[in-house]
Amino acid sequence: MAAMSCDRCAARARGVFCALSARPLGRLMAAHVPHRYAPGQQLCFQGNAAFAVFCIQEGRVKLSRLAPDGEEHVISVRNPGEIVGHRAVLLDGFYRASAVSIEPSTVCAIPRAAFMDLLRENSDFANAVLMQMARASLDTEDRLMARAMERVQTRLARFLLEHLPEPARAAQEPLVIRLELKRQEVARLVDTTPATLSHTLHVLAQRGVIAPRGREIRVLDRTSLERIARLRPAAEGSAGRPG
Amino acid sequence: MAAMSCDRCAARARGVFCALSARPLGRLMAAHVPHRYAPGQQLCFQGNAAFAVFCIQEGRVKLSRLAPDGEEHVISVRNPGEIVGHRAVLLDGFYRASAVSIEPSTVCAIPRAAFMDLLRENSDFANAVLMQMARASLDTEDRLMARAMERVQTRLARFLLEHLPEPARAAQEPLVIRLELKRQEVARLVDTTPATLSHTLHVLAQRGVIAPRGREIRVLDRTSLERIARLRPAAEGSAGRPG
DNA sequence: CGGTCCATTGAGCACCATCAAGACTTGTGG
DNA sequence: CCACAAGTCTTGATGGTGCTCAATGGACCG
């Protein structure tokens, strides 16, 4: 897969390159390297030299960091229009996280030098990247805060709500979530272990909130789920975080 | 305290404004508002409108976020030359964290409009802010990861090592750490409770690693402390993270 | 119809927060 | 300088959450 037009890229309007005028856009088109990734394929490895910034045209990319003890921790999931790896490219040339495609994705690699040139010469572009980094930083902060302070139940509930089928977000129960992921992977995204995930699903099932059956999960009581996710004020009694 | 020269600011060389040429620097000098803060004084509140970016000239500033359950969580400690509040100013005008001085500090407030103008018109400046945000984002990420995954012992050990007296960092034992903070505040910085902090200090004392006496803590075995902080490979046997 | 992978379930345990009471420090007034 | 009070720190007991480990139960595939 060689040349693709950046000016016809579906994600450009949403991303940091939207402000680029014809000339720098031309240089970007010359420099970028588009690529298709299957789910599970790795874009880059934590610790490697940051030779490129990745721009997601289509699909989703999971960013995770390896702890010293070898455990993987998801720090962000990026969507089309967003970029990946710019922090490492900016800082010192080593990726701080690994990036893995979790959906069939089209991603363009932009060589470090080209990216830095664009930054230096194009103030609007620099500002756009700034905005995106601000958003990403906030997102990651929220996610890590949630992990540190919220219970598995809460994180799971939020995960489920985020994975409701798009058109049915406002529809009525029972909603059905079809997860294309293995439990292992879901556990990672919720930041827990498969065993604990199973246990927590069981608890929610017993409460009549959901009805899990393999990779298909029916949401029976969306209101409760939202309360558990702390998106609604908690009912008194079962409130607060004991541990 | 009214006008101070930015061009004589001790922190400028270290900070994002180092690249500013005479003209924008002049405008910055006209717009900024310097202020002195005693330890414990608040620079800004989470949730408030982000009317300014703060530039630390002297001292240290603690950034913390309030969880929905009302608990405070430290996300960063910023040093001279660094800026605070730029993310909120960039994004949508609301501070996402509260900022409190934890040392006698001199901090300049730069109004939102002035900051944004500088960003737009000065590509070097935008790049400098970009770099700083990249660093800060990484720092916060590390801190939050540590909280989520490391034991209190580990975080405490790291905290102690970071608070070794500067000139003695390479010197021999016994090193003495003089903390000017109350236990309550130390507990917050290590992200735990005063009670648990006491417990953990006791455990380390029993192992002969440290000898705490009030706000003075003697480090008896620095090597062990570094191992506990995971800055050295763990000895076999007492390794791994059980919980 | 066994084999392999994945998911579930239960028992046990480590870590840490909470609570409450006691020891200590700090500050104040006699 | 001492007595007393208020705040701070420590210490112990208790319990909750979630991880580990291990065994069972299904699903998919050869």
Description:
The structure is a homodimer of 243-residue chains. By secondary structure, chain A is of the alpha+beta class. Chain A is elongated and about 60 Å long. Chain A is 38% helix and 22% strand. The longest helix of chain A is centred in the middle third of the chain and has 27 residues, at 123-149. The first copy, chain A, starts with 21 loop residues before the first helix and ends in a 15-residue tail after the last helix. In chain A, strand 4 and strand 5 form a beta hairpin. In chain A, the strands form 3 sheets. In chain A, strands 1-8-3-6 form a 4-stranded antiparallel β-sheet. A 4-stranded antiparallel β-sheet of chain A has the order 2-7-4-5. In chain A, strands 9-11-10 form a 3-stranded antiparallel β-sheet. In chain A, helix 3 crosses helix 4 (123-149) and helix 6 (183-190) packs across helix 7 (194-206). The first copy, chain A, has helices at residues 22-31, 86-91, 112-121, 123-149, 152-162, 183-190, 194-206, 222-228, and strands spanning 33-37, 42-44, 52-58, 61-66, 72-78, 83-84, 98-101, 105-111, 175-178, 210-213, 216-219. Chains A and B meet through helix 2, helix 3 and helix 4 of A and helix 2, helix 3 and helix 4 of B. The first copy, chain A, binds a DNA duplex (30 and 30 nucleotides) through residues 151-152, 182-184, 192-202, 214, 242-243.
Question: Which terms would index this structure?
Answer:
4-stranded antiparallel sheet; 8 helices; 243 residues; homodimer; 22% strand; elongated; alpha+beta; DNA-binding
Tell me briefly what this model is:
Chain A is an alpha+beta fold and about 240 residues long. Chain A has eight helices and eleven strands.
